[in-house]
Amino acid sequence: MAIGKTFAALLGALSLVNAQTSTSERILSTLSPQINAAPSLTPTILDNSAPDPQACPGYKASNVANNAQGFTADLTIAGANCQAFGNDIADLTLEVSYQAKPRLNVRVYPKHIAPQNSTQYILPAHIVQQPTGDGKTTASSSDLKFEWSNDPTFQFKVSRSSTGEELFSTYGHVLVFEDQFVELVTNMVDNYKVYGLAENIHDFLLGDNYTQTFYATDSGNTVDGNVYGQHPFYQETRYDQDNGKTTSHGLYARNAHGQEWLLRSNTITYRTIGGSIDLYFLSGEGSDGSSSAKETIAQYQRDCVGLPALQQFWTFGFHQVRWGYQNISVMEGVVQGYRDANIPLECVWNDLDIYELYRDFTNNNVTFPIGPFQAWIASLHANGQYYVPIIDSNIYAPNPDNASDSYPPWERAAAQGLFIRDPTTGDYYYGDNWPGFSSWADWLLPASQAWWTNEIVSWWNNTSFDGIWIDLSEASSFCVGSCGNGRLTENPIHPPFLLPGDPYSFDYLYPEGFNITNATEASSAAAASTSQASAASAATPLPIPTTTTQGRTNPTPGVRNLNFPPYVLNTVQSGHSLLKGAIAPNATHNDPYNTTEYEMHNLFGLQISNATYESLLTLFPGKRPFTVGRSTFAGSGKTTSHWGGDNTSTWGSMFLSISQALTFMMSGMPMFGADTCGFAHNTDFELCSRWMELSAFFPFYRNHNVKAAISQEAYRWSSVAEASQRAMHVRYSLLNYMYTLFYYAHTQGETVMRALAWEFPEDTSLAGTFTQFMLGPSLLVTPVLIPNVDTVNGVFPGVGDGTKWYDWYTLQAVNAAPQQNVTLSAPLEHINVHVRGGSILPLQQPGYTTAETQSNPFGILVALDKDGQASGSLYLDDGVSLVPSATKVVTFNFANNMLSTQIEGSYHASAPLANVTVAGISQKPQYVSLSVGKQQCEAQKLIVEYKDNTVYVTGLEQFTQGGAFEQTLNLSFGWQGHGWNGHGGNGHDWDGSQQHGSHHGGGW
């Protein structure tokens, strides 16, 4: 795009802003300063005056009762009440259960729980899956061993049965259990290596000077702060330098309350402001007795939170959305822009622009009138493309004094009493969000599901979407407390901050390095930003925020302070307040026990995703629902996927998206992707080129940005268009490979994107690496993550043990030394991808959409290992059905110079097999032989070329017209004097003279 013209337009708009000052002031003056009010607190971890919980007396165990799968015991407080950050609970119950060979459960909860306090301590199994035992594992058959002592107070440790390796130990520390505070401390080995605890924006290796805070918040991608989701699971890897082996294990702490994990030099401290201790220790041991990170992660998914959903095939295409698609015409232009640039586009999305006054389930009848909009969506469907809109988690509360402000979705829910309530009045809780004062559904009420389904189905009748994007599900509120209580007559109100597109809201920030590549534009942006800031300061369009100061509260016997608990979490919201940016903790639900948001806050995202999943099942019976949610919890992957939230157009944000992705692979949410090119601020051609290339190897691939910034569709710059075309060519070739990875994630808990440390666990140097990653077991991706360079450094793991690597584009073998940083050429339009020797990849000729790709011929890429062998697999089904009527798994094997397939299942894919490419053959074959099923094929009809240690075989369509994998295939190569016997086919004596033009990696 013409950057200079864009700046001219923005500067021109700034003049218009100044002319609209009075209008802006009138709009925003209706806001009360209370909306910005927030208490100022000091996080406990930063408060030197805070009590030391380890000074508490701890507990003594007694009344041990053994059972077949473990034991129970009483825990009684061992001294005077401590009341560090709550009221001590004197009597606890301990349960130790050997649930399965690799899994041990340790639970501690109050011995006497009144029904009205049940959810205060016990997380219900119907909300969050609770692992149960197999009924046959005992202490003697478990991978894990539990030991405990009462000297001086109750302490325990968990170790491996086979080796005695200590995995978790509270020895030397006391257990603290209060009504608003629980603490457990474990000793850690020196230089421990722990990963996970999603969601965080942090290095992949968490380190030993880090605090992970869990409290779902609408705060953008704050580095090292709490963000949208809570997955209290970590995996630890230990490297044994003496024998070169590693061990791995995991821990899942099933608790949804606000919590913190304090990773320090030799300890990890687990603190939570409520709930119980419900720990699941995972041995990470497989059937061979060895333990690994991959097996630990699989055990977490299979046994603890549930396996992730299998996505529809089309969802792996490229998605485009922007907050700022003002009308149908603009969206038509976007779709056409991609088509004209020949950049594949699978699905178009709408952000808030679609709505009437930002209200869910509505269409702006001026900009998105139902008839024309439905016709446009139908045109997308006719072209094999899809449409997804946003649904926010708040429901606008209409103005009771304005009859024309009727809003049926709110009215239907209110009539059934389905909203969370304000505890001070008993009325509904009225927070603030995009449309104004709003309410939130109470997902503890079964009737909420029927209401939600009705609203989604009714809206689909006007807007025929193919999936749902769930936003603000933390749940986010823009004010403090029930700020709309008694003020609904002011609705609709403007949010308490400038919106993108409002006066004074233009975004002039650009990525690092922009001043070098675009010096003139950078100077213009700086000047415009200064001018806008000066104008905004003079106009003061927003009320000046007021704050109240409140220090850490003291525990009061018989009282729980929900809004200001005695333990202050290190949350990122201003004042570190739990009231800021969310429904207040003391808001109540309508269940029999009036459960509060203090217990339920971190579960709202899980619940609304589950509800939306069920609604889409009703709307599309038998079809896999496609939802993308912002706030997630352990187990969310069963019903939703996730995007990385409101990131920024910066190189650092792109870099950290890899770590964020890997932690979600661990968390059982493989359908993950970042807002490509960045959401907030302006991108530029260099950052967007590199990011479009990187995201092509993330499972969920979407470009999204805010409307106050410049447009960033991939066709806007010729350089980005070329980079996108090239990267998508690779991605769409590999769609079946990626889909197969998801099949194994869905059925076995395998990971899709993979850390190098998972695939090469004995290499200590890879422990913290995430500048490179694997896609499945076979592809190594080495992206450029810094500006103004045309090379990138990368390592090639395993070469010291004989692992071979091939350049995807040339299929040339890489020459690298162990742990060597190899400098790779990386011009702007290129991302380095390498194929691991020993891999067989099913490919398909890429088309403009996933449907076009699926109709194109297949290819097979064989990359031989040092022994001349390779293997791989392919999963096929209809790509849509929740329970497919037919499936097929094709297993590939290359050994003894022959490629063979085995087939299980009856699913029919009609596209033929066009080519087979074998990389790593050191001399050209003299014979080829082919059989398809029982058919002995005339090999002389094949076209065979040998070049640079690679054999290219084409012309297989004539033998596979009924479908590439309807029958088994055997393709053999031979040499005189090497025991060639034709392998049962009609051998073709080949002199190597055939030529078939130039070749692209993978045969396309």
What's the average pLDDT?
A: 92
Q: Class of the domain at 57-197 and 232-305 in CATH?
A: Mainly Beta
Going by CATH, the homologous superfamily of the domain at 57-197 and 232-305 would be glycosyl hydrolase (family 31)
C-alpha end-to-end distance: 30 Å
| Strand residues, percent | 15-25%
The helix-and-strand class reads alpha+beta
Oligomer: single chain
Number of H/I helices: 18
Unreliable spans are 1-39, 544-549, 979-986, 991-999
> Strands across the major sheet, in which order?
28-27-26-24-20-19-18-30-29
Q: What share of the residues lie within helices?
A: 10-25%
DSSP summary, beta strand count: 49
- Please name the CATH architecture of the domain at 57-197 and 232-305: Sandwich
Largest sheet: 9 strands, parallel
CATH fold title of the domain at 57-197 and 232-305: Immunoglobulin-like
Radius of gyration: 30 Å
Overall geometry comes to globular
